[in-house]
Amino acid sequence: MSSAPTYTPRLLPLRMPRVCVAVTGADASEMMEKAEALVRDNPFLEFRLDYLAKPGLAIPKIKAFMESHPDTVVIATCRRTVAGGRFRGSMASELDILAKASGAGCQLLDVALQTAIKSKPAQVQKLRTRSALILSFHDFRGTKKLDEKLQKMLAVQADFHKIVSTATTLSDNVTMIRFLAKESDKHSLIGICMGEQGIISRVLGVRAGSVFTFAALSPDEKTAPGQVTAQELRNLYRIEQVDAATRVYGVAGDPVVHSLSPAIMNAAFRRENVNAVYLTLHAKTLKDLLTCIRGIPLHGISVTMPYKEAILKHLDNTDSHTTKIGACNTVVRAQDGKLYGFNTDAAGVVRPLERRLPTLEGAKILVLGAGGAARAAVFGLKERGCEVYILNRTTGPAKKLARQARARTVKRADLKKLSFDVIVNATPVGMGNTRETPLQEHEINARYVFDMIYDPAETRLLKLARERGAQVIPGIEMFVQQAARQFEIWTGKPAPGDEMLRTVLLALQERAAKSAPVKK
Ligand code: NAP
Fold first, then answer.
1. What is the pTM of this model?
2. Active site annotation includes 308
3. Residues 340-358: tens digit of each pLDDT
4. If you measure from the C-alpha of residue 397 to the centroid of ligand 1, how many angstroms do you get, rounded to a whole number?
């Protein structure tokens, strides 16, 4: 007889951790090996039996697993293709496999609404003799009519109702979170938005009332689009600590998936014990972002391309510095709901130089470029009393910026005759490759060369500068310092700069290791 304990469904929510890790496998043995490796750190697992060619073969192994891990909570799922799963068998086979999984000790069984409404009610209810029933519905197209779906689902008696929709906008998360907040007092709900834009619901759904959320075992083993790994949910987003008082921040742009900001900001919040979480917000329109800022609500935003300029007219106020630059990379949402804009890119340029030069007053600085980052550098350096020169590929923007900031322009042909204390590269030339450089070696006449580009860490420009005997400042310092200033604006605390630098260097190393070709 099985020694695995049975649980009354009523008590299950008390025992359930916030994160359930979905386990798949090429066959039953592989799935169970993964479960064994996972179970120490993850006491809540979902066995995706529908991923197996022969799910029935897994049952004896599940029984043995449940007997040796009686404190683990397990969901058995064998979802048919019609409901978005991979099981190609009949409805009767799905229910039969779930009944066997229940007999093997799985405390929760996931039955899709499509199966439940077409089966005899007694057949479905029989599954609840030993296990709790999760009635699930997946919408792979959007996040619509959640109330209507729930009403339809309530016709089937179940212990949990799980609604998984797809976020095609950030605002879809607002819809899901409002739905959970409204209904979770009355029903035991699990609510998540799939898709890259659904990250807000995956992290904040639990505080809005979702009993738990799902995570992937690893980035390669996602069972739903946009699923995050359990490690990310716990370590990066600290999901176990997210509560009603947690402040929510994020980096908003399009694209934004490769941003290092979540790594650096969440590390800073953790180090300084700030109850806050920082998310990646893929906003395809500014309107969507603004709806999300108010609807979630978000407490602050790092704004990146392409919204740094366009967001200005939606803000209630900006400091004079940001107005002059004409671009905002930091938004604060005040308690009264008003939005204030700042630009911390200037601090990102000025701070690394202040650490190296005895004074910036009178320092002769050449800025390459006349775009958003160059504008922040030029105004920031002028405010510190520097003598600023601008060189840009097209002369119009350089002249305009020079006029506005009371700086000067230079011609490229004159560079070999000129020398500077610092040259700052604010163009994207050299980004993502080690061959391109905005200046040739003979044009680099400076004590310091500061490249805003941080990927690669050592650009061609920095390499040439070293060879010319100049000291170099890598773009990562700007990235860390502009983020540090954001942290200070949002929290009023000094930023843990060393921790932020360490985190971002580690993230870059991991990224480089992943993209390096595998040697055989
Ligand atoms: P942006 O507004 O698009 O401006 C780009 C500037 O570079 C323009 O002046 C443009 O000149 C010039 N440029 C573009 N392609 C060029 C080429 N092939 N040859 C010569 N000049 C070229 O971009 P941004 O926001 O200022 O960003 C500039 C760089 O700074 C990017 O690489 C960005 O990643 C980096 N950045 C780094 C940080 C950090 O934290 N480290 C922060 C912000 C920005 P035209 O006027 O002739 O088009």
1. 0.91
2. yes
3. 999 999 999 999 999 999 9
4. 12
